[in-house]
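Aim 2 progress update. The chain analyzed this quarter is reproduced below.
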Amino acid sequence: MKILIANLRSFAPDARFDESYLRIRGFLSQIWDVAEHTDSKGLKRRGFGGYNREIVTTSSNNEQFTKYSRLQWHLR
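Predicted structure tokens:
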């Protein structure tokens, strides 16, 4: 990512780069929720005759980041 960012900065020197999102992401979750989705991976065999039910929760901040990005665009 560092190389990609450096290449983007050299390719577009007049572009504005906002690096504040990572710093304030925790505060933004109080305004715009992070999308979470829980899926079952089913039963997995555990040892002798035992089974575990496995669940996977994924989260996405895509919508939160998009709203933040649009807000930044409007404020400039």
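The radius of gyration is 20 Å. The chain has a mean pLDDT of 85. These observations will guide the mutagenesis experiments scheduled for the next reporting period.
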